[in-house]
Amino acid sequence: MLRVLIRKEITETILDLRFMATALLCVVLIPLGMLVNLQDYEQRLAATQQEHQMYRQRYSVPVAPAWGKEEAQGFRPPSVMSLFASGLDPFLPDRVFTSPTGLFRTERHPRLDSAQTLLFGQMDFAFNVTFILSLAALIVSFSAVCGEKERGTLRLMIAHTVPRGKIILAKVVGKYVLVVVPFLVSMLIALLILEMSPNVSIGSHDVWPAFLVILGVTLLFILCMVSLGLCISTFTARAMSSMIWLFFIWVVLVLGIPKVSPIIAEILYPVESENAFSFAKRMAAEDIREEFNQRSKDIEKKYSDQMDKEWNPKFIQIAKKYRNPSSSEYSEEDYLAANKKLNDEWNKANRERYDKLHAVMLPLAEELKRHTAQSLGRLEQDHRNRRKKQVALGLNLSRLSPVSSYAFILAELAGTGVTEMDNLSQNAQRFQEQVKDIYYDQAYNQFNSGQYRPKAYNPFDPPTLPDMTYTRVSLAPVVQTVWPDILLLILFSGACLTLAIAGFNRYDVR
Amino acid sequence: MLITLIRKEITETVLDLRFVVASLLFMVLIPLSMYVSRVDYEQRLAGYQQESRIWRERHGTPEWGGKDVEGHGFRPPSVLSIFALGLDPYLPDRVVTKFSGVFQTMKESNTDGTLGALLGQMDFHFCMIYVVSLMALIFTFNTVSGERERGTLRLLIAQAVPRGQLLLSKWVSKTMVLLVSYLCAVCMALLVLEASPQVTLVDSQVAASIGMMLAISLLLILCMTSLGVCLSTFARGSLQSITLLFSAWVILVLGIPKITPMMAEIIHPCETRRVISSRKAMLTKDLMTEFHNRRERLTDSLLSKEDNEDRASIEMVLRSGNVPTRYAPQVDALWREYRNRTPLELEKIEEQYRNQLQAKHTLAMILSRMSPLCCYSYSITSLAGTGVDEPKNFMNNAKRYQHQISQLLYDNIIIGSNGYGWEKGFDARQVPTFPDMAYARANAQQVMGTRVFDVLLLVVYTLLFYSLAFIRFVKYDVR
Fold first, then answer.
1. Are residues B243 and B306 in the same domain?
2. Structure confidence by residue, pLDDT tens digits, B94-153
3. Residues B435 and B470 in one domain
4. Under a CB-based contact definition with an 8 Å cutoff, are residues A122 and A86 in contact?
5. Which domain holds residue B377?
6. N or C: which terminus of chain A carries fewer CB neighbours within 10 A?
7. Phi first, then psi: what are they for A445, rounded to 5°?
8. Coil, strand or helix: which one is B74?
9. Inter-residue contact B230 to B462 (CB < 8 Å)
10. Residue B246 is nearest to which of A88, A110, A135, comparing CB atoms?
11. In this structure, are residues B462 and B222 in contact, taking their beta carbons and an 8 Å threshold?
12. Considering CB atoms only, which of A90, A132, A418 is closest to B114?
């Protein structure tokens, strides 16, 4: 009986204009979006490679003499999976600059050449699903119950000995199949388009497991939307009012909650902006440096004062003794000889003083390095924690809508989500350490006056700067971070289905 | 008769559930988005003020006029970006002037609005494009087909009313009802804006732009309602109309704006700005090397003309890396030649690139104007100072700032005779304070001058949709 009902639903829907429209939109827009994104990805990849190559040709071996203060640049290649969800990709920095102070900085080159694309946003797979497919699923299913009631066919069906639960189940299955089939067809075309590109291979280990998860989650998301549509239709008596509620709920779920909740989180839990923070960091570093400079100056002054106090009288004494205008006991030669002797002694003492000074300065410089790293690390940690709290609050608020859960899952799987931020800074940190070993540890600056180097390091034959190897988070930890969202999607569709069944059981079919 | 018809339509629309839902959405979303954008703007403004103030305090007056001294110019956020954020999150917010003439634009990698970036920002412009346009379509999608379904259209036609009047009354009344709830929401939003201490609406420039934006927004609503009426004449029943509405909305709001610019990119692929700027950096480096080589050759040729006596002493000076005083005029002249040549060469690269971009830009503009929503976006974001012309404007401002700093400092530096030196009369220890970057934006009249085409196109779309609806309605089968 169930099969008959499902078959009836499917035939009915296929003959409907709505099915034609959604199928057409799916089959046109999803592959087209994929094609366009593929081109975009290839361009980004080519640009990164070209830039990297230029950099390697020109700057990868620093110009001799290299004094251990060289800046190395690391490039973040675009992620293949960003084809599916560009997520934060347009905002993530694409270059890392290491620095001798230990504070790497990241930069994003503004891609202002394609102003229109930035203005209207990209049409990637995630966008197509959250906007078009969700609306399509709702439109296919919104009049499933109330439409049939309006036409009067529902009465006839109820008159048969079919349990109501079966009727609603048949409707869910029928509608779901008819949204999923065009979606799968369009996915197939999209995959063919991807496979044609020389830069992307679906069979590679980076792509297919993540792709399968994306596919599964998308099917789940469509189920959410279909059951939501059915749920709406069982709670309204007429197709017209059902349609209006549908649009209302769609606007709230797709446009309202996801966009408003981050801002509400920001208002509830304000964190200073990244600009202000990096400024504060820079200033803190400058202040520490200034303080140490002052200390080193004081020490230097102490030593030179000591020298002056010790030696100046001696020079004056000689001058007085040998150049006494009242007596001509000594000639000018005698004075010069005595002066030279004294000078030699002074030089010796001065060298000793330098050695002593060096012995004091070396720990001071080490302390400066340590102190800077510590206090900046503390600042950074503090800021990051606050930021994390804010993001978590925003995430939880936005999870009221399954659409944002879906968006998070996809962005994380595509390597363009919130955790990619941390991953980027970890990669940058690793790169910084690498360059530090090669260059920055080879020298330390003695504040205002020169620097010291270990003997093994030859500044006239500087080693090549390494490339940054960018590692991405593998699939298992990603799935671990997104499982609450997947669970939420399941819960949401379960809740909608239950509500739909409950609503339909007491539905007035007259 | 027309008035009776309009009154009937208005009562019908007001009693409809759609009116309640639309008003609710408008009243909640538009003021809320305005509040959110206002808070965001205030934060951006505070960030800008803090950064430029601290920079001015710490580095505003250089202690020493060397060639490593940089001037930093900051881009203030535009007040009207509250209405349309547009390209603002992508525009660089700082210009760093360089001795070489290749100024650097910088953007702090902005990771604050992580979630906001991921889920998109909601401003007035977004509300208009997505919510209001959808609501306008929902208001009108079954004006004709719905009434046919209910059977009331037959009764209406049976009266001695011309079909044109019937259609006009439907369109006018639906639009009026929608506009009333929309304008209420906008008034609330403006009150929210006015409550901010940072924003004043009475400023004539701001007020003119806001007025213009509202006028264009009203035009968009007219355009959308006439599209809805037009769609309703193409369908026989409500369900059919919904499908049409859905397809039209997806294509006009989601499809065309997002796909056409990328299509243009595929048709006219361009090098990225990054590649161009590294090319420029390379060029200046090459020019410097060329200059040094030529300087060497020049001194060699000058040396060969000297008598034997002078030669030895001059060679000694040359070996120490300096240029003897008697060669200074020639060598300095050579430097001046290079200093003048560099910007010209850079401009050449820039020009070539601009031409390349222009072709793509024009194509993208033309293609995307197939959707009235794009015309609307272009005019609103241009008015807000965050539109597609803003990158160019930013570059012009940056160029002006670089020029200013060049005049103050870089033009006075000579890499000619002795390492590097200064022009006569310039005291390197007394460099004047660097000015703040004066960021010029086009005012409302100028923007309208460039965007008049888009506004006209909106009018044309409205008329087109309406006349199509009229033609279809005249031959509509009311049975």
1. no
2. 888 888 777 888 776 555 566 666 667 788 888 898 889 999 998 888 888 888 888 888
3. no
4. yes
5. 65-80+92-101+269-450
6. C
7. -90, 135
8. strand
9. no
10. A135
11. yes
12. A418
